[in-house]
Specification:
Blueprint lengths: L9 E2 L2 E2 L5 E3 L10 H11 L1 E4 L5 H17 L37 H8 L1 H11 L3 E3 L4 E5 L24 E6 L10 E4 L6 H5 L8 E3 L4 H13 L5 H6 L12 H8 L3 E3 L7 E5 L4 E3 L8 E10 L22 E3 L2
Parallel strand pairs: 3-10, 9-14
Antiparallel strand pairs: 1-2, 4-11, 5-13, 6-13, 7-11, 7-13, 8-10, 8-12
Length: about 325
């Protein structure tokens, strides 16, 4: 499908210029050629592999996810849970979940089978040329309809840059995702933007500025010693190195950095792999159904790893992950 025949995408309720939207380039034609896969990754910053995963396993994981959402009151009780139709009755409280819901990934064997076994791990062992490991933390997104849940433009490196930079993200849909549902979109060529990589790409969302005086160091140290998270008031007192997002406007970012937003009409079983410096976002979910997807990370097993995402209780972006730096 060309941009001219795609439905109108929106971001935070504003129309996206469809002449600046394109289709992802497929790489399933070179799935057995490691050199060709690397050439595509270096050129495009991503590999789009339609129907690479076992759709039966993805459907089994979806069934578990939809069952959990149904029981928590997120889905319409008059419709089959597998349809993923979001509840609209205010008494059911469809706001029981936010767009980011990692709790759905906890103690979820059908989901783990898709993300950390079988074709997924086979791909990375082939692509990276040896033993690999994945982060223990699973990012899971449950995007409800509306104009308030589109993902802001960002690069993953700012969230997980304390280990090897040769780290890769898998974006795995657990819904069929028509264009108007707001699937992942990547900014064409952004991984080769040196200003982006050397500026924004060097930041760390869990770093705070020590050179503002002793206050920030004292606040963080006290919270770490007490084993508690920062209060809202304490957070306001600290100058953070980065908020994470490159921008809160995907339309303005494309105008600034050029290139097109690239996306696809994803199906369950599709896999999108991309590097840490590729700017990506999502458009609004304009349907009545919830969009389910997971973000997971993989690297060579012998390389350094970001400790924020390892273990049964990883620090994530909590108080244990905070570091002081000179800004």
């Amino acid at each position: 499908m060309t941009a001219a025949t795609m439905p109108q995408l929106t971001y935070s309720g504003k129309p996206v210029a469809m002449d600046q939207v394109g289709e992802l380039c497929r790489s399933d034609d070179v799935i057995d050629d490691r050199d060709a896969l690397w050439e595509r990754m270096e050129k495009d910053g991503y590999l789009f592999l339609p129907r690479y995963l076992d759709r039966r396993d993805v459907l089994a994981a979806r069934a578990e996810l939809c069952d959990r959402l149904f029981k928590s009151g997120v889905l319409d009780p008059t419709r089959p849970p597998m349809e993923g139709v979001v509840a609209t009755d205010e008494t059911i409280n469809p706001a029981a979940t936010g767009p980011f819901m990692p709790i759905l990934a906890r103690n979820n064997p059908p989901l783990d089978k898709v993300l950390y076994d079988g074709p997924m791990m086979d791909f990375y062992e082939f692509f990276l040329g040896g033993p690999v490991r994945h982060y223990d933390y699973t990012w899971f997104r449950a995007k409800q309809p509306g104009t308030h849940t589109a993902t802001t433009p960002h690069c993953d490196i700012v969230y997980m840059g304390r280990g090897t930079k040769a780290l890769y993200t898998s974006w795995t849909p657990f819904s069929d995702v028509p264009y108007e549902m707001g699937g992942l979109m990547v900014l064409e060529g952004s991984h080769q933007n040196q200003a982006l990589k050397q500026g924004y790409g060097q930041t760390d969302v869990d770093a705070f500025c020590e050179n503002d005086g002793p206050t920030a160091r004292q606040i963080v140290a006290a919270a770490q010693q007490q084993g508690r998270e920062l209060t809202n008031q304490e957070r306001e007192q600290i100058r953070w190195n980065s908020s994470g997002a490159y921008s809160h406007d995907a339309i303005a970012v494309r105008e600034e950095l050029q290139g097109r937003w690239l996306t696809a009409e994803y199906q369950m079983g599709d896999l999108l792999v991309f590097c840490m410096y590729l700017l990506h976002a999502s458009s609004d979910n304009q349907t009545d159904r919830i969009r389910l997807s997971a973000d997971t990370r993989y690297q060579r097993s012998h390389e350094s790893i970001d400790e924020r995402w390892i273990g049964d209780d990883p620090p994530a972006h909590g108080i244990r992950a905070k570091r002081g730096m000179v800004c």
